[in-house]
Amino acid sequence: MKLRKHLVLVIMGLFLVGLVSNAGVFDFIFKKGNKKESKQVETAKKAVELTMWVTPDAEHEADLKNIIKKFEDKTGMKVKITVLGWDIVWDKLTTAATSGIGPDVVEIGGTWVSSIAAMGVLEDLSKYYKDDMEKDYLPATLKYSSTVGVPGKMISLPWVTDGYLWYYRKDLYEKAGLDPKKVFDTWDSFSAAMKKLDAMNFKTDKGEKIPAFAHGGKNDWNIIHMMGGFIWQNGGNYISADGKKSLIADPKSVEAIKYFTNFARTGIVPKKYLEKDPSEIEAIYGEGGIATILTGPWFAAQMDKTLSGLYDTETDDKTSLAKSKFVYKNTDVAEPLAGSAGRYTFSGTNNLAVFNFSKHKKEAAGLVKYLTDDEGAQIAYAKATGLFPVSVAAVNSPFVTENHYRSAVKYAFDHDYVKVYPSVPAWGPIETVLTKNLGLIWDLVSGVDGKYTDEKLMKVIDETKREMNLVISQTGTE
């Protein structure tokens, strides 16, 4: 997915936008098992061709086309898909929003939805669906379907989601005499376990030390989401629920930042890993080079594919493949840590929306509902992307319940462990500020800017707070 890694593309011109609402009512209802819906959809004008923009997360374009073909066969419509590169997607979205020229259906990262909606270009989808349709989706994934302060608007629907969980080498934990249930219980138990693992001095087959825990730093686009989980666990937050002020400098947030960064500051997380991106961290783990990582369901999907033999004929490096299979066979998953405020982790979504200047809004709403709610479509796309489905039907299917790793993600959703950021227009540029400034924190704990001190850390955090509040004031959120 990794939609989150690309939020640094957000441009400051977004600050000038304002909220507008849409009007108009249609009686179209896209509802499974509804005869009225079936008749309306199947008699749609065959001449209709819907256009759809998707991100590179839809890298399995052929799979997506096969999923959509069932919709085309049922409705007689055609869907033209365009995959946008991450280097141009934001410019394309904003250009479409300002010009009124764009696709009927568009994929938007969950944290971007409110920012695009603030331009007044996203159709209110609630008019096309049954009143209780929210029950068809995981509740947490609907948070980006509306905007804080604008009740009754459904400006998008979630397509796929994720959830950051712990993946660890159970064989190394066993050798160290560690009980995973106790390791991933509290902050204190996790810290103690990482120290013990570090002291075991486990080595790779190349004689290199296997760190107890590793993650990226300033080049890791997911790092703010990892840190966000720790902040929530401690009762803090990046921003207030109404989106009106930064909370990053509040004591609970600061305490969580210190806890998370302390692993790197004390050497549990070797400093060389702070230059890595998420893909590199996951690859090193797969080679047997790390004992514990925090990542999303795409990693579990990669493990499943490797262990199923999917790559057996696609690589000449049989030694490396055998090593990965050994590591993955000895990998297990654990739920978020429990801080003083509870167990929490970040979950992002990729959403689908309809531009309100589309000439086929009703038909486009039907495509959105099919992709986000149809059980078969949801399972097929989750398989293709390695992400997690959002429809209740798909989540309760054997595809999830009979898979160890996907069941762990389901458990996190079922127990309300997953959290998202407030759906406010300011969040897009705020995430840009966080990505930039938290990068400075990793330089600080690495000693790039001299010896670490809490005073230097607070200086960075206070500046981050100032910049976040400036963004909020410029978007008119406060």
From TrEMBL:
> Which Gene3D superfamilies does UniProt cross-reference here?
Periplasmic binding protein-like II
Which keywords does this chain's UniProt record carry? Plasmid
Query: Which is a Pfam family this sequence falls into?
Result: SBP_bac_8
SUPFAM superfamilies given for it? Periplasmic binding protein-like II (SSF53850)
Tell me yes or no: is Cell wall biogenesis/degradation among this UniProt entry's keywords: no
Q: What is this protein called?
A: Sugar ABC transporter substrate-binding protein
Protein species of origin:
Haliovirga abyssi
